[in-house]
Amino acid sequence: MVDVLGGRRLVTREGTVVEAEVALQNKVVALYFAAGRCSPSRDFTPLLCDFYTELVSEARRPAPFEVVFVSADGSAEEMLDFMRELHGSWLALPFHDPYRHELKKRYEITAIPKLVVIKQNGAVITNKGRKQIRERGLACFQNWVEAADVFQNFSG
Questions:
Q1: What residue ranges carry the coiled-coil annotation?
Q2: Residue 127 belongs to domain with CATH number
Q3: Reduced 3-state DSSP string for the chain
């Protein structure tokens, strides 16, 4: 379980609530800081969606990977609209959870979109997940898995 999200509840784009401990157990986690009103976010989100779908949803053996959306939208309604329109079937920190702001501060988010890939203890594997996906596609995931220390036997 990713320590930084311990005790938190996450939501799906359909509104289902899940416990972070269960959903993130033994997975590489990417915190996705973005907003629907941000054109770079709207540009990158479909690429992230394809990346996630290939690794998790459509894979013969789903990869140990999860995205957690940390919204920078102006309202819960904007967040949900963005999630329903462009997001993959990943998770999100609820809009009204004040922890969103703590995560932005902890991971020094000064611009969006930003994809921060973290270890189970919350340490950063890379804060350049967006760039790595754009440049290397699925190949970057193996590096993340190796850096995470937990999933060394995964082969994509």
A1: none
A2: 3.40.30.10
A3: CCHHHCCCEEECCCCCEEEHHHHCCCCEEEEEEECCCCHHHHHHHHHHHHHHHHHHHCCCCCCCEEEEEEECCCCHHHHHHHHHHHCCCCEECCCCCCHHHHHHHHCCCCCCCEEEEECCCCCEEECCHHHHHHHHCCHHHHHHHHHHCCCCCCCC
